[in-house]
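Lab notebook, bench 4. Still working through the backlog of constructs that have no structural model yet. Next entry is a single chain of 126 residues. Request: give me the structure tokens for it.
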Amino acid sequence: MERREKIFILDEAGFSRVCLSILSGEGLEAESLAQGVNSLPVRILDGAALIITSYPYGKPILNKLVGAVTPVIVLTDYMGKEIIEVLEQLENSYCMVKPIDYGRFTMLVKELVQKKLFCPGGYSIV
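Model written out:
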């Protein structure tokens, strides 16, 4: 991967720190945008290689990403009708149920950033 791809983490501060540490340890460039996720303009995310958020914390930004082709990893505590409805609105999303396997999470992030995976017009539960 010659060009460094930007990963945005839109989550609570605790998970964001853990996630930043894991991803930087793997040589991936990530930035936490935990503050003000409700008022975050989508244009800030233009050109992102990947967006990582949780549900329901990131629901406001997920609603703004409807139709965007940028891959999104959504972490959730449970699967239910409401999260499925949100995922169905996204073009390229991957959902992981907590507690997550960090090895699997890191592998998924790398594959998405390197564009080895694409889930067009839908979602995948990982």
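Notes after review: The first helix runs from residue 13 to 25. The domain at 6-125 is CATH 3.40.50.2300 (Rossmann fold). Flag for follow-up if needed.
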